[in-house]
Design a protein that fits this description.
Oligomer: single chain
Largest sheet: 5 strands, mixed
CATH topology of the largest domain: Immunoglobulin-like
Number of helices: 5
CATH architecture of the largest domain: Sandwich
Number of domains: 6
Distance between the termini: 64 Å
CATH superfamily of the largest domain: Macroglobulin (MG2) domain
Helix content: 10-25%
CATH class of the largest domain: Mainly Beta
Length: 777
């Protein structure tokens, strides 16, 4: 009941608060309307509203009380005091303290007792919600340091304490303040970054409040004096980019003391700020061809000036303004302000290329017109045998592709080969539709291993007319370019990098570089442990445990040639693989004789690496139904235990093939299920207990012999054939003969039994997936 009463009171408070706000708002609107003064003089009609009318004051008071009420609803049992101060402050300056009481409900006034530990004074004040204390600490009376200011709030009538708080404030003998830096730029992507060779406005803000003070400022950039003025605002210009330190020395003569004893005190303050200066982007130029073939890279260069990082964007549009393509790239650091337009246009015509460049403090634009034409449909394809290590032989290939239906009587072309490797020379070959060259880039020539470009120009050998141009990147590497192949003979494998334990694994490494008379050695590793050293690029090993492994090889090659000294090249490869145990010990549990309309209920289990999947299919051995040989896996589980449940609605003998797979193996087993008619005559089954009694000794003896054979030899894959088809239309004599025949056939074949509970080793052959889903066959 107390909770319901409290909630009801809160609800009424909120409703009344909303009502007061609405009434005050309506009254305020009426006051604004009535306060308009109309004047028909030369100045026309003027409308004047009092700076702060009665309704505005009422709104402020109601809103303030409403906020306190809402806050108090959630904090009415824990009154608190929030304090603030304009600290740090210099001696002889004015410091202001504020204390705000958080309580609900709020009374008209409280007693705020301020305890100043700097002067050891107690200053009582009466206030409602907020109390303000202004103090001036004379340098003659108070020393520099950190002092606590305490406030205690009490009820006016009883004097009981409500809440209290304490705040430390700092008194210094120097000036306190900061400097603000501004600059008018088109772009300001990053704070504290300003443009070089442009005015930077520096403003000094001394936060100390003095009764009367005269200030003088000295400005410095990176320690060099830039000016001396009494104005707190100063303009400077930085000539170079990079990090700069702005320093301001502030001097002040301030009045200190009381009205009866005033003396002048000198103050000093030092303020500094680090800024970054960048050059504005400019001189955006397009350096490329203005007449270009269609469906070919433009490959134009754009140059500029300015400081990095930059964002370069270009937009290609048709004369009507329809945008064809837009691309932007960001360059963080670079030596030269240079960008590449590497794109292509598929349709001929006139286009407009708009370019823009932006850095942290500026932006610039440029626009050019380009024309795309449709040349003869001839192209050249260029590739190479790279990546290749330095000092190896590299072959570059070029193949000229002619359009369909074009024939050349004398197919002779001039191929001009030119790369951008330092010190490399132009090479010319004359061939038919295909041509190639071989080059060797030596490390002794200080060629850096990186990405380069081979340019190929194809000319008509008779008139020198350019038929096609193309370029192809190629990579020069510092280390050998190799590939590690890991193989294992498995009949079934689910994933490429998964291998079986306790089986031989073969490692083969291929070196793709064309070396001169190489002497190569191989160090082989398994989990960073060396497992062998060979001069041949292959090795074999066996991993006994399942798990994750790191397989690798370190390669060392020595090459010797006439034009270079003995060189040693290295290569290193590491490959992560997973090793899993193969499946084994398949176990089958269940009844193999099912009544007509009944369910087969058995379970297949196994041991081996997980995850595993299961599938099975059932085939009618009578040939009346078309056999289903598909087997589709639907799910993988961590536990190798799968139930087989199926309802049989027709008499006969059925073949059930179950298959279990994991990542590295597949095992399958086959058994037979006999479906009989439970309503047939029971005469055929009378002989069963009699014959069992007569042959008990024979069964026991046969079991002993069978047990001895099992101990000597592993269990083979079992094919079950339990019963023949039972029909309800045969006579008693026929049924007796069938029962006896079935019984003797069972006694002769150890594979057939009425209840199957055996450890079966299935075949290791790959099988197709089942057509039925797991658990419902």
């Amino acid at each position: 009941m107390l909770v319901i009463k409290t909630l009801s009171i809160r609800f009424v408070q909120i409703v009344v608060l909303h009502h007061f706000l609405f009434v005050a708002f309506c009254n305020g609107i009426e006051e604004i309307k009535n306060s308009k003064i109309h004047d028909t003089g030369q100045q026309g009609i003027k409308s004047q509203v009092e700076p702060k009318s009665h309704f505005v004051q009422e709104i402020e008071e109601i809103f303030e009380d409403a906020v306190e009420s809402v806050e108090g609803m959630f904090n009415d049992r824990n009154p608190s005091v929030h304090m603030s101060c304009s600290s740090p402050g210099s001696l002889d300056s004015t410091l202001t303290f504020h204390a705000t009481l958080k309580i609900f409900p709020i009374l008209d006034s409280y007693v705020y007792e301020w305890y100043d530990n700097a002067t050891h004074e107690v200053i009582p004040m009466k206030a409602k919600r907020t109390s303000k204390l202004t103090r001036v600490y004379s340098s003659k009376d108070v020393s520099v340091g950190v002092y606590p200011m305490e406030v205690r709030i009490k009820y006016t009538s009883s004097g009981d304490m409500i809440a209290g708080n304490s705040l430390n404030f700092t008194l210094t003998d120097t000036l306190n303040g900061n400097i603000a830096i501004s600059q008018k730029n088109d772009v300001q992507r990053k704070p504290n970054v300003y443009a070089a060779n442009k005015n930077i406005t520096i403003s000094t803000n001394v936060t100390d409040k003095f009764q009367n003070a005269n200030f003088t400022y000295i400005w410095r950039i990176n320690g060099l004096k830039e000016g001396n003025t009494t104005d707190p605002v100063f303009n400077v210009t930085c000539k170079s980019d990079g990090n700069n330190t702005i320093t301001v020395d502030a001097f002040a003569e301030v009045e200190a003391g009381s009205n009866t004893s005033i003396h002048m005190v000198k103050k000093f303050g030092n303020f500094s700020k680090n800024i970054e200066v960048s050059y504005a982007v400019n001189n955006l130029k397009y350096e490329g061809r203005f007449n270009l073939p269609i469906k070919r890279n433009i490959n134009a260069t754009v140059t500029c000036t300015g400081s990095f990082p930059m964002t370069f964007c270009y937009n290609i549009s048709d004369p009507l303004g329809f945008q064809i393509m837009r691309y932007c790239s960001v360059e963080k650091e670079s030596v030269d302000c240079q960008f590449t337009i590497d794109t292509q246009i598929d349709s001929k015509g006139h286009y407009i290329l708009d370019m823009s460049l932006t850095n942290d403090i500026s932006t610039t634009n440029n626009s050019v017109k380009i024309q795309l034409y449709d040349p003869e449909d001839v192209r050249v394809i260029v590739n190479s045998s790279t990546p290749a290590v330095l000092d190896s032989h590299i072959t570059f290939f070029a193949r000229l592709v002619l359009p369909s239906g074009v024939s050349i009587k004398d197919p002779r072309f001039r191929y001009i080969w030119e790369d951008d490797v330092r010190g490399s020379q132009l090479q010319v070959t004359t061939d038919d539709e295909t041509s190639s060259i071989s080059r060797q880039y030596h490390s002794k020539d200080k060629i850096k291993p990186k990405r380069y470009t081979m340019h190929v120009t194809v000319q008509n050998v008779y008139d020198g007319r350019i038929i096609a141009r193309e370029q192809s990147p190629f990579n020069l590497t510092k280390t050998l370019n190799t590939k590690l192949n890991i193989t294992q003979k498995l009949k079934y494998r689910r994933f490429q990098n998964t291998f079986a334990s306790n089986k031989q694994v073969n490692f083969t490494v291929a070196v793709h570089d064309n070396l001169t008379n190489p002497d190569i050695s191989y160090w082989w590793y398994l989990n960073n442990t060396q497992i062998g050293f060979t001069k041949e690029p292959e090795i074999s090993t066996v991993v006994n445990k399942s798990g994750m492994y790191i397989l690798g090889v370190d390669i060392s090659a020595y090459i010797d040639s006439d034009d270079s000294p003995l060189l040693e090249l290295h290569g290193k490869l590491r490959h992560n693989v997973s090793v899993k145990d193969t499946l084994h010990t398949l176990q089958l549990e269940g009844v193999n004789s099912v009544p007509l309309g009944g369910y087969l209920d058995c379970r297949v289990t196994c041991k081996g690496g997980s995850p595993v999947s299961f599938c099975a299919n059932v085939t009618d051995t009578s040939g009346k139904q078309r056999p289903n040989t598909t087997c589709q896996t639907t799910m993988y589980t961590q536990k190798c235990s799968f139930p087989i449940i199926r309802k049989f609605t027709q008499l006969g003998v059925y073949k059930l093939q179950a298959t279990i797979t994991n990542d590295v193996s597949a095992r399958s087993t086959v058994f037979y299920v006999s479906v009989y008619d439970p309503n047939a005559s029971a005469i055929a089954y009378i002989a069963i207990p009699i014959l069992i009694s007569l042959l008990a000794a024979v069964v026991i003896a046969g079991g002993v012999v069978y047990h001895i054979k099992v101990q000597r030899k592993g269990v083979e894959t079992a094919d079950f054939n339990f019963h023949q088809t039972a029909t309800a239309d045969t006579g008693p004599v026929v049924r007796i003969r069938q029962s006896l025949s079935s019984l003797f056939s069972q006694s002769r074949s150890p594979k057939q039994q009425g209840y199957a509970y055996a450890s079966l080793e299935g075949s290791d052959e790959t099988v197709e997936s089942p057509s039925t889903e797991y658990g419902a066959l």
